[in-house]
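User: Can you predict the 3D structure for this chain?
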Amino acid sequence: MTTPRLSTPRIPTGTFKELGPINWALCRILSKVAGTPDAHLFSTLGRNRGLFRGWLFFSGRLMPGGRISKKETELVINRVAHLRDCGYEMDHHSRIGRRFGVTKELLAQVKEGPESPGLTPRYRTILTATDELLKTKNLSDQTWTLLAQEFDERQLIEFLLLVSQYDGLATTIGTLRIERDF
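Assistant: Here is the predicted structure, written as structure tokens:
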């Protein structure tokens, strides 16, 4: 399923006055790190002030601060972005993924899915679990058992939160019609 081209943003990006000094400063820093003058996601969500900072803390604990390797985290995020047809997430996380070893070839395999030839068994399991969680909002006992052979309990919890975080973020980006940065 392809999402229609996004129209005019439903909530515009915030100015200094709308973001407040703390969120404005955070948005400037995060935009610079992202390599864009204005990371529209942050300057839109930042309008909700305290909630934005709480969400930012939570998101940062998953990526880049999680227990799952940064490369595997980016595999999950890019798979979610691809399946949700979220260009905004894909734009940013294909770039971030490159910094952590997600090559163009591996990204193509991630887009192809868990049956892509050449994937390691571990990556195949991670992508299978990502797909299943997005499709069914649950994991079968078989998939859970395979994933539990790859991750410890803390990583299993993190994995579930990571997939659902980026699934929810794709929903937010699409519903708010947040414009792409690149």
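The mean pLDDT is 96. The CA atoms of residues 4 and 174 lie 10 Å apart.
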